[in-house]
Design brief:
With 195 residues, the chain is an alpha/beta fold. The chain has one domain: Rossmann fold (3-Layer(aba) Sandwich). Strands 1-3-4-2-5-6-7 form a seven-stranded mixed beta sheet, with helices on both faces. 32% of the residues are buried. The chain binds guanosine-5'-diphosphate (GDP). Guanosine-5'-diphosphate binds next to helix 1. Necessary for normal cell division and for the maintenance of normal septation.
């Protein structure tokens, strides 16, 4: 997709803050610092629309980005940040859960993981939870530029096995540095926004 317009719309903490125009939504989940903001910026050709390298866990809201007046990226709060209190984590959990279970315009969840490392326990839990509810998920393994191509298959295998990937979910290699995977991810998203 050629992105001609991308804008930050709103930070929402619950349904009253969600946009009302019924455009399809693509949610992005992943642990703090995995590279989610960089991925969003790369996808929409912007250096800094989504905040990068902010204090991990600081982004506590659902951040809506409208793209070409066609769809939203919804950046979910990063998980797995140790310094956040248990109560705070429960508040986020409830907010994210409510969004993922009840948002009718949600089409696809992109789970961003780091190609360099095996999925974390939080990544595994997130994927299991989504699959329990039969949500369509796409795994995006980012920071692919940090691993030589000759070793990609080894890392892909570890990820697929650890997550027990199922239901025909796709895994896409990505790099916010080089743009690897960008076209493939847009093509995949289009299958959910223009079915
Ligand atoms: P977020 O907390 O998930 O939004 O993560 P950020 O997008 O802020 O990225 C965290 C750090 O990883 C930053 O220092 C980024 O520059 C770096 N980073 C993110 N994506 C990539 C990538 O694809 N390749 C490389 N080499 N570094 C990346």
């Amino acid at each position: 997709m050629k992105v001609t317009n991308a804008e930050f719309v709103i930070s929402a903490v619950g349904p009253s803050g969600y946009p009302q125009d019924a455009l399809p939504e693509i949610a992005l989940a992943g642990r703090s610092n995995v590279g989610k903001s960089s991925l969003i910026n790369k996808m929409i050709n912007r250096k800094n629309l989504a905040r990068t390298s902010s204090t991990p866990g600081k982004t506590q809201h659902l951040n809506y980005y409208r793209i070409n007046n066609e769809l939203y990226f919804v950046d979910l709060p990063g998980y797995g940040y140790a310094k956040v209190s248990k109560t705070q984590r429960q508040v986020w959990g409830a907010m994210i859960e409510k969004y993922l279970l009840e948002r009718e315009t949600l089409r696809l969840i992109i789970l961003v993981i780091d190609l360099r490392h095996p999925p974390s326990k939080d990544d595994e839990m997130m994927y299991d939870w989504l699959k329990h509810y039969d949500s369509p998920v796409c795994i995006v393994a980012t920071k692919a530029d940090k691993i030589p191509r000759s070793r990609w298959q080894k890392h892909i295998k570890i990820i697929k096995e650890a997550l027990v990937m199922r239901g025909g979910d796709k895994l896409i290699m990505f790099s916010s540095e080089t743009g690897i995977g960008k076209d493939e991810l847009w093509a995949h998203i289009a299958g959910f926004t223009h079915p």
